[in-house]
């Protein structure tokens, strides 16, 4: 007895929606294995032995495909998990970038404040040096003034002594201007 392509396809898959696809797979397998076909009543048929070979090969391919589909589904699940994890990491990265921008902004503000304080410190140092220079100059002037005052005082004392000599001097000494 022999079987048609349709009978072999139905033996492989009972789903009529996929019958056309299964029939094409059976035809492809017949060509691949170089199986001899006979024409009976406008239908191509193969022997039962060849039909069983075709069914075994296609069932094995179906199993391999289902295993591949399972592996594919597992891989898709892994990819989905990795995408979810990647999304979480992206969000965390964005949060850290925002935190980094915020901290950099604070650092820049502190740097600006430090620069202002440093500028003010330099101004104060300059003012302090100017004041110290003025103080030294005024101290020198004060010392010079004190020396002049002491000198003037000494001269004043000398003059007072001379005046005193003149006032105590006799008439003769005043006329001759000898006061010893």
Summarize the topology.
Blueprint: E1 2-4, H1 5-12, H2 19-32, E2 38-40, E3 43-47, H3 48-168, H4 171-176
Question: What would you note in describing this structure?
Answer:
The chain is 83% helix and 6% strand. The protein is rod-shaped and about 185 Å long. A three-stranded antiparallel sheet has the order 1-3-2. The longest helix has 121 residues, at 48-168. It has four helices and three strands; from the N terminus they run βααββαα. α1 crosses α2 (19-32), α1 packs across α3 (48-168) and α2 (19-32) packs across α3.
How are strands sequenced across the largest beta sheet?
1-3-2
- Radius of gyration based on Cα positions: 61 Å
For the biggest sheet, the summary is: 3 strands, antiparallel
Share in β-strands: 5-15%
Low-confidence stretches: none
Helicity range: over 70%
Q: What shape does the CA trace take? A: rod-shaped
Question: Helix tally?
Answer: 4
Distance between the termini: 176 Å
Q: How many E strands? A: 3
**What is the average of the pLDDT values?**
88
| Order of helical and strand elements | EHHEEHH
SS-based class? mainly alpha
List the main descriptive attributes of the protein structure presented here.
single chain; mainly alpha; 3-stranded antiparallel beta sheet
Give a quick precis of the structure.
This protein is mainly α and 180 residues long. The protein contains four helices and three strands, in the order βααββαα.
């Amino acid at each position: 007895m022999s079987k048609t392509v349709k009978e072999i396809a139905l033996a492989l898959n009972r789903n009529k929606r996929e019958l056309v696809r299964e029939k094409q797979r059976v035809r492809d397998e017949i060509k691949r294995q170089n199986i001899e076909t006979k024409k009976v009543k406008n239908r191509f048929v193969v022997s039962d032995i060849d039909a069983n070979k075709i069914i075994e090969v296609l069932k094995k391919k179906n199993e391999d495909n289902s295993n591949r589909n399972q592996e594919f589904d597992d891989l898709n699940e892994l990819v989905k998990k990795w995408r979810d994890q990647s999304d979480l990491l992206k969000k965390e990265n964005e949060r850290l970038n925002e935190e980094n921008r915020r901290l950099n902004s604070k650092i820049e503000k502190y740097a600006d404040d430090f620069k202002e304080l440093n500028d003010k410190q330099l101004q104060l140092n300059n003012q302090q040096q100017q004041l110290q220079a003025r103080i030294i100059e005024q101290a020198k002037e004060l010392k010079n003034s004190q020396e002049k005052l002491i000198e003037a005082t000494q001269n004043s004392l000398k003059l007072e002594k001379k005046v005193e000599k003149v006032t105590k001097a006799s008439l003769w000494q005043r006329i001759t201007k000898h006061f010893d």
